[in-house]
Amino acid sequence: MGEVKHLCLVKFKEGVVVEDVLKGMTDLVAGMDMVKSFEWGQDVLNQEMLTQGFTHVFSLTFAFADDLATYMGHDRHAAFAATFMAALDKVVVIDFPVVVAKPPPPA
Amino acid sequence: MGEVKHLCLVKFKEGVVVEDVLKGMTDLVAGMDMVKSFEWGQDVLNQEMLTQGFTHVFSLTFAFADDLATYMGHDRHAAFAATFMAALDKVVVIDFPVVVAKPPPPA
């Protein structure tokens, strides 16, 4: 069993300062060793029919499924999640073991 | 400007053989050099309130935004996308430059 990802697609409520949310998330995961890496992004193609209003992606990577479970059950995650969810108009969350079907070429 | 990801969250129609779709996508990207890597996964936590019925994630990584544009405009992508979309009950697609907020630790 390899890496597991915790992926959130979100649409923020109007008036939310996305930079503040990002800072909160970055600070949170910086202090939590069970989070192997964290990347995010903002949609750039704006194909409304396909994005369905979702604008941002947040992706946490864990080396093991147990690390994800530890993270999800952690008080600091619970506290942040409450604030995070309150800032969202829409959200979809998927947790999945990563299957690499085409690996990147050697660097 | 770094990597760009093309991310699809999907819910398949009933009766769709997911393995066939996966094989089609794997074959497609294996033959297209502008696709740097391809990974996918199936949701394992089944938190219906959070997944909203989405079950699978497909993530293509491109080294440059131009590679994504070339891929999106390619005949082979168009042909596959038509078949792929027909197999879906729901889909959200997001295209985003990757911001690495917490890099993975050195191997």
From TrEMBL, chains A, B:
SMART domains: Dabb (SM00886)
InterPro entries: Dabb, Dimeric_a/b-barrel, HS1/DABB1-like
Superkingdom per UniProt: Eukaryota
Assembly information from the UniProt record: Homodimer.
Name of the protein in its database record: Stress-response A/B barrel domain-containing protein
PANTHER family associated with the record: EXPRESSED PROTEIN, PTHR33178
Coiled coil: none
Domain Stress-response A/B barrel: 4-96
